[in-house]
Amino acid sequence: MAQTKEALLADAERLNINVDGLDYNQLRTAVKTAKEAADGDEGENGESTETPTETTPENATVARQVAAREKRAKATKQAAKEAKKKKAKAAETKAASESKKEGKDNRPVFTDDRELKFRFKKTAPESLNIDGKSHKTADIIKNEEIMLELVYGNSNYIEQIH
């Protein structure tokens, strides 16, 4: 609905809008936003609960900029919270994994005649083929002859404990 400039000026005066230096499109926008604001501010009796304020395109622009600034600040705070949560969770996970590493090692130990201690590496297979027979590592560690053969033969499955 196109209104004449005179009708827009009358509406602007009724809504207490400063019209100095506004062209037709700016005036139409200012009146439209002021009417929407006035419709939203009315109480139960149809009376305005707030006094009308001056609404110009400059004020509308400033309001949009302030709203955008607030939205960015809120998003930044939210991102900081999420980053803090992720960092705390990562630290918790790291602490849990370190505590598992520091746990007691239950692998059996072999002590040779020089009082050096050896055990099978964590990556060693469960059973080894020695002299054509399959032996479990738990049985090998108890057999001194086979263990000495592995120790003096520098087996890759054995590690020395210092």
Task: Give an overview in words.
The protein has 162 residues and is mainly α. The chain has three domains: 1-55, no CATH class; 67-103; 110-161, no CATH class. Helices cover 54% and strands 11% of the residues. The chain has helices at 5-14, 24-41, 57-101, 137-142, 144-152; strands at 110-111, 117-120, 127-130, 133-136, 158-161. The strands form two sheets. Strands 1-2-5 form a three-stranded antiparallel sheet. Residues 33-110 are annotated as: Disordered. Residues 89-110 have a biased composition (Basic and acidic residues).
Write the layout of secondary structure elements.
Elements: H1 5-14, H2 24-41, H3 57-101, E1 110-111, E2 117-120, E3 127-130, E4 133-136, H4 137-142, H5 144-152, E5 158-161
Antiparallel strand pairs: 1-2, 2-5, 3-4
Helix pairs in contact: 1-2
Relevant terms:
162 residues; 3 domains; two-stranded antiparallel sheet; 5 helices; rod-shaped
Quick rundown:
With 162 residues, the chain is mainly alpha-helical. The protein contains five helices and five strands. The chain has helices at 5-14, 24-41, 57-101, 137-142, 144-152, and strands spanning 110-111, 117-120, 127-130, 133-136, 158-161.
